[in-house]
Design a protein that fits this description.
Blueprint (H helix, E strand, L loop, with lengths): L1 H28 L2 H12 L5 E2 L1 H8 L3 H9 L6 E3 L4 E5 H8 L4
Antiparallel strand pairs: 1-3, 2-3
Length: 101
Amino acid sequence: MKIRRKSSAKKEDSELESRLNKLVKALEKLSPQKIEQLEKILQAPQKQAYTITEAAKMLAVDRETIRRNIVNGSIKAIRLNGRGHYRIPADELECFIGGGK
């Protein structure tokens, strides 16, 4: 029984190491500006969703740039009460910055 657990733990460690190596390679491909934007998100208080203003500050762009990206579908956002107020899910913002869109 103990041997299986050690074997299982080694396999999990190997898989984790492989995932970390892939992440490092992906990060090496990012521009310094993209890395800086990701750092801002990671340093900000963790929220589930951000306003257009908050996203614009993190990305160092104008609010209208964020709004345009929402309208054209580059950033997925949730519209609140049909009044034009949007919330951008944190994972969507991270994906956008990382070039996943």
